[in-house]
Specification:
Blueprint (H helix, E strand, L loop, with lengths): L1 H60 L3 H26 L1
């Protein structure tokens, strides 16, 4: 009978340990989920910052007024060519 009581006591200890481990597992899963969401938000923010930085760098690459004027003329020529093509297509 004493052996049965000892076995029962060991079973109680194991069940308590199992409950503690199960609670810790749930807590860790919640933490991982929270951190994964935080990482996703930070990645989105980083992508936005990188996009903004690229836009700023593109704006800074053209310092010279001559270069700006040259690019403006090129864009005007390209837009003019597109207008010609559109007019041709509409005829």
């Amino acid at each position: 009978m004493q052996e049965l009581q000892l076995l029962n006591d060991k079973l109680d200890v194991l069940l308590k340990k199992y409950a503690v481990l199960e609670a810790e597992n749930k807590r860790l899963k919640d933490t991982v989920s929270y951190q994964a969401n935080a990482i996703g938000l930070l990645n989105d923010k980083l992508a936005g910052i990188e996009h903004d930085m690229a836009a700023v760098q593109m704006g800074k690459t053209v310092f010279d007024d001559k270069e700006k004027e040259h690019m403006r003329k090129q864009l005007d020529n390209v837009i003019g060519e597109i207008d010609k093509i559109l007019n041709t297509l509409n005829d």
